[in-house]
Amino acid sequence: MSLKEIAARETIEQVMADALSKCGSKRSFVQAVCLAVSGVNHPTDQQRILGWLRDIFPSHVRLYVRNDAVAALASGTMGKVHGCVLIAGTGSIAYGFTEDGKEARAAGAGPVLGDWGSGYGIAAHGLTAVVRAHDGRGPSTMLTSSILQTLGLSSTEALIGWTYADFPWARIAALVPVVVTCAEAGDEVANKILLDSVQELASSVKAVVERLGLCGEDGKSAFPLVMVGGVLEANRRRWDIGKEVMNCISICFSGVIPIRPKVSIFFLI
To answer: Which family does it belong to (predicted)?
Structure first.
């Protein structure tokens, strides 16, 4: 077992223990466990985590492991797993379900394979724009001074070193507010980065909706679209990514019903 898997298992065990402690219950009283986990996309992933859970709970307990998109969707539809959910935080994914159990997904393949509408994607494009401007391969941008100041760096060369010093994707994604601030201040490069991210997120939703036929044959049937994640919750700013994504989607699907969950979601991994 890798160090990452050991850490994940320990986290799951701690979460289960905390949940039981808070409700004053014991493992022997549990009848079923459903764990919705980010990054669980294949049967091998599910079986691995199911094995961990079997070591924690008695044999009579029913165990279910799904992608966290299931929980995110249910958080906005009062438990009904039907419709589409768009998650855009550090990463991004669109996931949809029909009432008869069919499902489809788009994006969610991770930063290397291009979750470009995600927080990581937005910030990575911001960093790239700084390097391009420094080289003379791209236009000058306010992102250069803003990102360097935010990180306490003195030069683009130092920025390159900072970028590759540590690889956790959330570290890069934390720069999204800087890109948004520059876009709101009129920086064309930052503005285009956000516009491109809107198109990426909207296209993921469109792909899922069309594959599942959630919009009906005429494209006008009603379906819920649950929107979750920090990138989509930036509606306190003038540059509202979530609102722009919704505008793009509603042009294609007039029956879309946007939902921002009032229930908090804890993303385990």
So the answer is: Belongs to the eukaryotic-type N-acetylglucosamine kinase family.
Ordered by where they begin, the domains of the chain are 3-74 (no CATH), 82-261 (3.30.420.40)
Hey, which residues does 103 pair with through a beta bridge?
97
User: Would you state the pLDDT for residue 28?
Assistant: 85
How far the first Cα of the chain sits from its last, in Å, is 17
Whether residue 253 has pLDDT greater than 80: yes
Q: At what angle do helices 143-151 and 176-184 cross, to 10 degrees?
A: 140
Vertex 233: Cα angle to 64 and 192 (nearest 5): 115
Buried b (16+ CB within 10 A) or exposed e, 132-141: ebbeeeeeeb
Residue 25 CA: distances (Å) to CA of 9, 14, 22, 64, 256: 21, 15, 8, 20, 41
Name the band, by pLDDT with cuts 50, 70 and 90, for residue 269: very low
More confident residue, 257 or 43: 257
Mean of pLDDT over the chain: 90
| Residue 129 identity | A
Helix (H, G, I), strand (E, B) or coil at 105: strand
CA distances from 186 to 117, 152, 181, 241 (A): 20, 23, 9, 16
CA dihedral for 216, 221, 224, 228, sign (positive or negative): positive
Closest Cα to residue 268, out of 45, 32, 21?
A: 45
Asked if 239 and 91 count as a contact pair (C-beta separation under 8 A), the reply is no
